Automatic annotation (TrEMBL), chains A, B:
SUPFAM superfamilies: Homeodomain-like, Tetracyclin repressor-like, C-terminal domain. Residues 33-52 bind DNA. It holds the Pfam family TetR_C_6. This is TetR/AcrR family transcriptional regulator. Gene3D superfamilies: Tetracycline Repressor, domain 2. It comes from the Bacteria. Residues 10-70 form the HTH tetR-type domain.
Length: 203, 203
C-alpha cells in the first residue's frame, strides 16, 4: 500500500471524518476530544488543530458527519413507500426516526448526546434548530397532503400538526433509549399508530 | 464567622451539593468535573475525591441535586390545581414540564444535558429510566382518572396514553429549547391543548 500523495487533502479530510465518526460511535459526544480523534487517527493533536482550531469546530464537524451518516442509512420504511403521499408517507417518515433496530438506536443515542454540546453554544444551537426546522417543514408538507386527501382533519395548520408529530417522535426516542425493554419496536409502532389515529380523529 | 465544626459532615455535604448545582447551572453536564466543583468550593480536588471517587459518582450526585431542585421549584400550574383530578390535573402536570419561563427552561436544559452522560453508563441509564417510569406512572393515574370521568376515551390502556403524553411533552421541550422564538409559551400551551384535544376525541 502506497502512502497517500502529499497534498491529498480530500483523502486526509475523509480519514479525519471517519476517525471522528468512530470516536462518536464508541464514546458519544462526551468522549469527543481532539486527543481522542488524534489517537484514533494515529496522528498528533497538533495536526488535528489544523482541521479543528477549537472544540466547537470539532463538534460542528461531528454533526456534519452524523448528518451524512443519517442520509446514508435511510431505513427500509422510507424506501418502501417511495412515492407514497399523505398519511402513509407521514407514518413512514416518523417510523424512520424511531430506534426500531440497533443501528437506528445507535444513531439516536449519538444525536441525543449532541444536544448538551449543542445547547452550550449559540452557533451550534442555531445549526440544530435549522435541522429540526427543515424536518418539521418536510413533515408539514406530508400533513398538508394528508389534509388535502381527507386523511387528517382540515381544522389545524399543517405546521402545528407537524410540530406535534415531531414532539411525539423525539420524546418517544428518548423514552425508548432509556427503557428499551418497556419500548420494544412493536410497542413503539403501536404508540405511533395510536398517536396518528388520535391526530386523524381530532378536530 | 466561625469555621464549621470538625465532623460537621452534613453542612459540608450541603456545601458540596450547592457547588455541584452552581457548576451545572453555569456549564451543564459537559462542564461538570471534579476540578470545576473543587474550584467552585475553594477546595482541593483531593478533598472532592473523598465524596466522589469517580466521575460517575459525581454525575449521580448531580442528578440527585437536580431532582431536589425540581421538587423545590414546582411551577404555579401544579399548585393552582391542588386537589384537581382527571384531565385538568393531567394538563397542569404536563404544563409543569414545559419551558414556559426562564427557570423551567434552565432546568430542562440541564436535564437534557444529563442524557449524554446518563446514556453512557448502565447504572445512570437505569436511574433515569426509573425517573421516567415513575413520571409515566403518575401520568397514567391521571389518565385513568380522566377515563373514569369520561374525559378521555376508555378504549386504550392508561399506560399507553401516559407514554404518548410523556413522549409529546419531552419532544416539545427539546424543540422549544432549540428554537425558543418558534415555540414561545403561548404556542407551547396551544400545542399541548391541541394534543390533549386529539387524545380526548381519539378512540
Amino acid at each position: 500500500m502506497t502512502p497517500p500523495a502529499r497534498g491529498d487533502h480530500e483523502a486526509r479530510r475523509r480519514d479525519v471524518s471517519e476517525a471522528v465518526g468512530r470516536v462518536l460511535a464508541d464514546r458519544g459526544f462526551g468522549g469527543l476530544t481532539l486527543r481522542a480523534v488524534a489517537a484514533e487517527l494515529g496522528a498528533s493533536t497538533g495536526l488535528l488543530t489544523h482541521y479543528f482550531p477549537n472544540k466547537r469546530a470539532l463538534v460542528a464537524h461531528a454533526l456534519e458527519v452524523l448528518d451524512r451518516q443519517a442520509v446514508g442509512r435511510r431505513r427500509p420504511a422510507t424506501e418502501a413507500v417511495g412515492a407514497a403521499r399523505g398519511l402513509p408517507a407521514l407514518r413512514a417518515a416518523l417510523l424512520d426516526v424511531l430506534p426500531l433496530d440497533a443501528a437506528a438506536a445507535a444513531d439516536n443515542r449519538t444525536w441525543i448526546g449532541s444536544w448538551d454540546a449543542a445547547l452550550g453554544d449559540a452557533e451550534l444551537t442555531a445549526g440544530h434548530a435549522e435541522r429540526y426546522r427543515r424536518a418539521r417543514r418536510r413533515t408539514a408538507e406530508l400533513c398538508a397532503q394528508a389534509q388535502e386527501l381527507g386523511e387528517l382533519p382540515p381544522g389545524r395548520p399543517a405546521a402545528d400538526l407537524a410540530a406535534q408529530a415531531q414532539a411525539f417522535v423525539l420524546g418517544l426516542v428518548v423514552q425508548a433509549l432509556f427503557a428499551p425493554a418497556e419500548f420494544p419496536p412493536q410497542r413503539q409502532r403501536a404508540l405511533l399508530d395510536g398517536f396518528l389515529a388520535d391526530l386523524a380523529t381530532g378536530r
